[in-house]
Design goal:
mainly alpha, 3-stranded antiparallel β-sheet, 325 residues, 2 domains, 12 helices
C-alpha cells in the first residue's frame, strides 16, 4: 500500500513539474501591448542640448550604456559612445545593456521615435517583449523624453552587437510569472517647471535620476520595491573587486538617516566631491555635474518624505566570508 502511495505521489509531482516546465517555456516569448507616446525627435540644438545634459547628467544613461572600458571617462565628464555591452550579473541571470547609438543594425537606428518612447515609458520593446524594470523613466515629461531621444538620434552611430540576455532557471520562472510591463503612475506631464521646489526635486529623484531605485529596498529578481521609499539598505556588490559590498544609505529625514542634520550647502558640497570609493554604483560623476538648483530641489524633496528608522552605520563593508570555505 505504501509503495502504491509513493508511486502515485511521484507520478503527481512529476506531472506537476512537467506542466510547470511546459508553461514556463511557453511564456518565455510573451508579447505585450502598450501605447505609443506621441514623441518625435527634434533637430533643434537647444532640445538636443537638454537631452545631452539629461543623458550625461541626472539621468546618467552613460553610466550603464557606455562601453565598460569607458566608465572612468564617464565619471570625468568625457562624452563617450553609448554603445552598450555592460553586463549586470543578477540572481536571474546576466542582463546586457543595449547599444543606444543610432546604428541601424545593432542600435536604435532600426526603431521609430514612438517605439523608443514606448520602451522607456512602458517597458515594452518594439517586438512586444518586456524590459527588465530597472529604468525609471515611466513618468519623464514629454518635453524631457523628446529631448533625450533627440540627443540619442544626434549621436554618431556605433556598430556593436550586444549579446542577448541569458537567464537561468529562476530567471525563466520570474519572466514567465512575475514580470509585467510597468507604466506611468499617473498623468505624465507635458513639461515640468525647473526650480528649487520639492515638487521638482521629487520629479528628479523618482523619474529622472533614479535615487528611489537604489535607495529603496527592492527584489533583485523582479525589480519590485519591497520597502519604504528612500529608506536604504539595498546591497550591491562592488564593481571594482569581490572584497566589498555597498549598502545604500537611508535618505529619509529620520534621525537614523544619512542626511539628518545636513544643511543644503553640505548636501551640494558632497555631490561636488564626486566618487570616494572605487566600485560604487552611485554615478557620482554625472550627478556632480547637476546644477545647484537641481541639488537644492532634491534636498528639499528628501526633507518631505516619510521618516523611516533604518540605521546603516557603513555604506561600504567587507563581504561576508563563506564559513564552509
Amino acid at each position: 500500500m505504501i509503495k502504491k502511495i509513493l508511486k502515485w505521489t511521484g507520478i503527481i509531482i512529476g506531472s506537476i513539474l512537467l506542466l510547470v516546465t511546459i508553461v514556463v517555456a511557453m511564456r518565455q516569448d510573451m508579447k505585450y501591448e502598450a501605447p505609443y507616446p506621441d514623441i518625435k525627435a527634434s533637430a533643434d540644438s537647444s532640445v538636443i542640448a537638454r537631452g545631452k545634459y539629461l543623458a550625461l547628467g541626472p539621468a546618467h544613461c552613460a553610466s550603464c550604456h557606455a562601453d565598460p572600458a569607458n566608465l572612468e571617462l564617464v565619471e570625468k565628464g568625457v562624452e563617450v559612445p553609448l554603445s552598450g555591452g555592460n553586463v549586470f550579473n543578477l540572481p536571474v541571470g546576466n542582463i546586457y545593456v543595449r547599444n543606444i547609438t543610432p546604428d541601424k543594425e545593432t542600435g536604435i537606428g532600426r526603431y521609430t521615435d514612438a517605439e523608443i518612447a514606448r520602451e522607456l515609458r512602458y517597458g515594452v520593446r518594439p517586438d512586444g517583449s518586456i524590459v527588465m524594470p530597472f529604468m525609471p523613466f515611466h513618468n519623464v515629461s514629454d518635453e524631457d523624453l523628446t529631448a533625450i531621444i533627440s540627443f540619442l538620434r544626434s549621436q554618431p552611430p556605433v556598430k556593436n552587437k550586444v549579446p542577448e540576455n541569458t537567464t537561468n532557471v529562476l530567471g525563466k520562472i520570474v519572466k514567465a510569472f512575475l514580470l509585467k510591463p510597468e507604466g506611468p503612475t499617473g498623468v505624465v506631464p507635458k513639461k515640468v517647471k525647473q526650480d528649487t521646489s520639492a515638487a521638482y526635486g521629487e520629479y528628479l529623484a523618482t523619474s529622472v535620476a533614479n535615487c528611489k531605485g537604489c535607495h529603496t529596498p527592492r527584489d533583485m529578481m523582479t525589480g519590485a520595491f519591497t520597502g519604504e521609499p528612500f529608506s536604504g539598505g539595498m546591497i550591491m556588490g562592488s564593481s571594482a573587486d569581490d572584497k566589498y559590498d555597498f549598502i545604500t544609505p537611508n535618505l529619509t529625514p529620520d534621525s537614523t538617516g544619512r542626511l539628518f542634520g545636513w544643511t543644503q550647502d553640505m548636501f551640494i558640497k558632497r555631490f561636488r566631491m564626486g566618487k570616494i570609493y572605487p566600485g560604487t554604483h552611485m554615478p557620482w560623476g554625472p550627478f556632480s555635474r547637476m546644477s545647484d538648483d537641481e541639488l537644492k530641489a532634491i534636498y528639499n524633496y528628501l526633507q518631505t518624505v516619510k521618516p523611516v528608522k533604518n540605521y546603516i552605520p557603513q555604506t561600504r563593508v567587507e563581504k561576508k566570508k563563506d564559513k564552509d570555505k
